[in-house]
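Request: When convenient, would you put together a sequence paired with its C-alpha cells?
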Amino acid sequence: MIHEFAVENFLSFKEEQILSFEATASKAFENFYVVKKGNFRLLKICLLYGANGSGKTNLLKALAQLKQLTTVASSHKDAHIPIIPFLLDEESKTQPTRFRLSFFVGDTRYIYLLALTRTHIVKEKLSFYPGTQPAILFHRQYDAESRQQPSNLELKLDYRQRKRQF
C-alpha cells in the first residue's frame, strides 16, 4: 500500500511534488476510507483534481515511469533512459530526476529512492523499517570519477535473513 510518492525534476515538476495517502485528523468515514499501518493512518483511495495544466496527468506519468523503470529490464545496457527532466530551466536539464516511494508490505514500511539522468542511474536505495530505525536492503551510487556504476553493488540481505545467519 502506498504511503507517499514524491517526484522532482520530471516533465512540468521542477521542485519536489508529493502525493500523500496519509489521512487527516478527521474521523469522518474512518471505517470506510482509512487503513491503519503502524503509526500511520492511510487513505484507501486518492482523488486528483485541479485546474487544466496543473500537473495531474504528469503526476500519473511519473508513477507510470517509476513502474516502468523498476519492472522492465532494458535490453541494451548503453541505451538512453527514457526520462524527461524539467526543460524550462537550463540548470534542471542537467540535474537528475528523483523519485521516492514510501509503501507498506504487510505492516513493514519501505522507502525506495531513485535518482537518474538520461544516461545513468545516479542513486538507488531501498530501505525498510523493522522498528523505528531504517535498515538498508540495498544502495548503489554512481561514481562520477570513474563515470560508471559501481561494480560491487552493495546488497544487503533482508533483515530477518541476516539475523538468522548470526
